[in-house]
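Sample entry (82 residues):
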Amino acid sequence: MIRLFLRVLVGIVASIIAKRNMLCVAIVVGVMCTIVVTMNMRTIPAQSWMWIEVPLYILVAWVAARLVMKWRRTGLANCSCN
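Predicted structure, serialized as tokens:
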């Protein structure tokens, strides 16, 4: 559960840093996390319930990007990164 929360946090941070294409950046981060976790689970024996969690990384990245897009519309996530 903590790993999934960290993935949400990574997706949110990636979306906040991106000035444009927040959804694309978050999905790329989600896909990269999915690839890394899949490679890790193929080399280290994992429990079957962990395989169910792997596709959720892309879904969680999408939800995080949508959340940041909503924050930006309402003015909660104004990032002055230049």
